[in-house]
Amino acid sequence: MAGTELQSVQRGENPNDFKPMPTIGSGVHEIRVRTEVEHRVFYVAKFDEAVYVLHAFQK
User: What is the value of pTM for the model shown?
Assistant: First the structure.
């Protein structure tokens, strides 16, 4: 599920469930994946060449 959300970001689209995280850094967003277990992915997408995943974890 997180991979699909990151592909959306690569295409310039917004993920289904995300929010900006300015307390972590400028341009950082959080993807929230809600299944039986919740997962979070923090990424920066303000660079043309790539989407940079900063951290991913199970909540």
Answer: 0.85
